[in-house]
Amino acid sequence: MYTRKMVPAASHAGVRFVSLNDTECIIKMPYRRRNKNPFRSMYFAVQSMAAEMSTALPAMIHLAGHDVSIAWIVLDFEASFPKKATGDVTFTCSQVAEIKDVVNKAAASGNAETLKIETVGRMADGTEVSRFVFHWSFKRRSR
Question: How far apart are CA 105 and CA 113, in angstroms?
Answer without folding.
Answer: 7
